[in-house]
Amino acid sequence: MSPFQKAGEDDDNICALDLILAAWDEGMDSGLAPEQMAYAALFTALTDLVGLYGEPAVQKLVNGLERRVENGEFTLTRRTQ
Known about the structure:
The chain is mainly α. It folds into 2 domains: 1-32; 33-81, no CATH class. It is built from 3 helices and no strands. Helix 2 (34-53) packs across helix 3. The termini are far apart.
């Protein structure tokens, strides 16, 4: 079981995440900076989503990310200031 797997989560989603994480590790092992990997991953994801669902749907998705980032949904470790 993947460390990211939750009960009842689709096996294809876990497989996709595992493949992305393996590619990320390979990129880092090749000397790429994490921000380079992140920008490439975001570009790839957004261009695929636009191709599948169109610009308006992806714009709606991206607009919803601001609140989620502000709420710390993507923060794995909390920093105290």
